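Appendix B, record 7
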Amino acid sequence: MKTISKIVLFVSLTAPILGFSQSADSLNIEKQDTVNAVSSKYLSQPLNYVSVGYGTQNSWQLKAAVDKPLSKNIIDQIGVNFSWYSTDGLSKSLYDWDTSSTDLNAGIFYNVNTTAGKLHLAGNYDESKINYYGIDELDVFASPNMDLEQNMHKIAFNSDFDFYSNNFFDYAALRAGHWWDRFNSKESFIDFKAKLAGSKENASMPLSELRFGVEADVSVNYTDTHFGLGSQGRYSYFTAGFSPVLKISNGFSYLKIGANVMYNGDFSNNNSKFFLYPIAEFMYHNSRELNIYAGFTGGVYLHNIFDLMTENPYLYSNQKLFPTNTLYKIYAGLKGESAENLEYEAEIAYSRSENLLFFARNNIGDALNPKPYNRLNTFSTVYTSGNLLSMKAALQYSLNNLILRGWGEYGHYTNLGSLRAPYNQPNFKFGADGTYKMLKNKLKLQAKLFFAGDRKSNYYYFDNSAQWAEGIKTLDSYFDADVSVSYEIFNDFSVFVSGNNLFDKNYELLENYRVQGFQLLGGISYKF
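Structure tokens (predicted):
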């Protein structure tokens, strides 16, 4: 789905394919933040193209990318990319007012392989224009020409370095960004993570088959947020973590025991705390096809508006930003691969956390002086302590020109205190996608499926005494499907067509926020 129907609301639970367990050792995949750029793990084939498309609801799409080697003496690559998408939004039969949206994204990256390691640098700018169109039918001030616009900007910088020599660092990553919006809210943040190079040595007889090593992860995060509406709140946090572990290994099987020591400083309220979490993980390597792991961990996670506005762009521009403290998380799972054609993972976990974050709908503001954001059409963060039982699974299959992926998640929250429900979180969701190339790779077929179960949401209504009251409603589950086809007519010249929301359902992604129905977009692409 494009734009309006493609908002990601469930990032906190979403499992990337083959990448959702706690330890990089149990994954063999390290989760990294990238900004529309090539991974530093390898240098991609040069991709130089321009593409333009047009579709229903006066939708326009423009994409372009250029990348090339920079030097003949070293293995490196530099590139830039650009994308722009604009749509008039939903049919007037659903909303009389403006539901249009626009997104512009531009980025640059640099990748290089040196004798010391692999370096990746990326910068990105994103501008999003949306409308708070999810207005309750009770708003008597609603009219077709009202102002509902929100305009958000993001600047981000990402870098990561994989070291070969392991002298001090094994891996280091830096993420920094700045965000601001139409209502004079702004935020700056910096996030640094590193894995220190571990020391390893063989055990003496009679345990010579064992290897002992010391490893450590380091993390530093700083976030400073100023809001421009309402109380114009400010949040300034600094968090630092150090996680040393002793690793005892035998081949690919291992046992890790250690601790996660974290400092969280709330500079806005002159409040500082230290946290200590025991951590452990065990993995049994039976074969390439079967690896079993289990462990427990804990930690503090900072929320920033930069990421929250990606999850839910209809947030009111003044939010409570409190760290989520996971007191403990116990998990177990298995993973494996077969002849590199089939990879799978499955995991079950149980956790207890303080300040779990959910999105709740806001009440109406000044009814006599309506603003774009006070018409029962925005959301705010709400926090509570609670438990979460989660189960996740992911599968990937590849053969010749066919790639299939699928994942599913189940989450059940309990003991949420005064919060009446885990707002806007489905208890079950799954997704699948596939790509198939044929006719000597001239014809490319892609398909995506996504399902989300029922979700609870708060809402507001007039009670019998004509006063505002808050209730709970259930948003129906939904199933979404997208397909796209591209065909290379001549060398480097292709045509494409995509169909989104094939079932043509205007389901609610959020309470009163319906999505576009069936959308069709076609265009041309030229590689050079």
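Remarks on this record: The longest helix spans residues 305-311. The first strand starts at residue 49 and ends at 55.
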